[in-house]
Amino acid sequence: MRTITDALRTRAGAIAAIVLAAVLLLAVFGPFLAPYDPLKNSAEILQPPSAAHWFGTDYLGRDVLSRVLGGAPRSVFTAFEAVGIALVIGVVPGITSVYLGRASTNGSRCGSWMGSSRCPS
């Protein structure tokens, strides 16, 4: 089984770790880095990206970059909640079924896979 350090030694693993770290850092510090108040309306409605508004403005004149940075913590928290719920829903029944000895059907490791009685190779 590969460990985290083995995964980080590969190029793809290192890139994934950098992207994950960037997302987490922006989620933590994003609201403090936002150039404008994400809830403040202005007269600059539907402006394209520019030096003043890197992502442009929306239909109410709010800076889109500020809104993305302001919403990042809630989005990351929601993702962690979803993973936690999926972990509980999947791991608890799995561990329980293994503990009770009912992890497979009729004592067979493969059971009936896709309508055949043999194991997939």
From TrEMBL:
Keywords: Membrane, Transmembrane, Transmembrane helix, Transport. It is a multi-pass membrane protein. The chain crosses the membrane at residues 12-34, 76-100. Its main location: membrane. It holds the Pfam family OppC_N. It is found in: Cell membrane. Residues 11-49 form the Oligopeptide transport permease C-like N-terminal domain. This is Oligopeptide transport permease C-like N-terminal domain-containing protein.
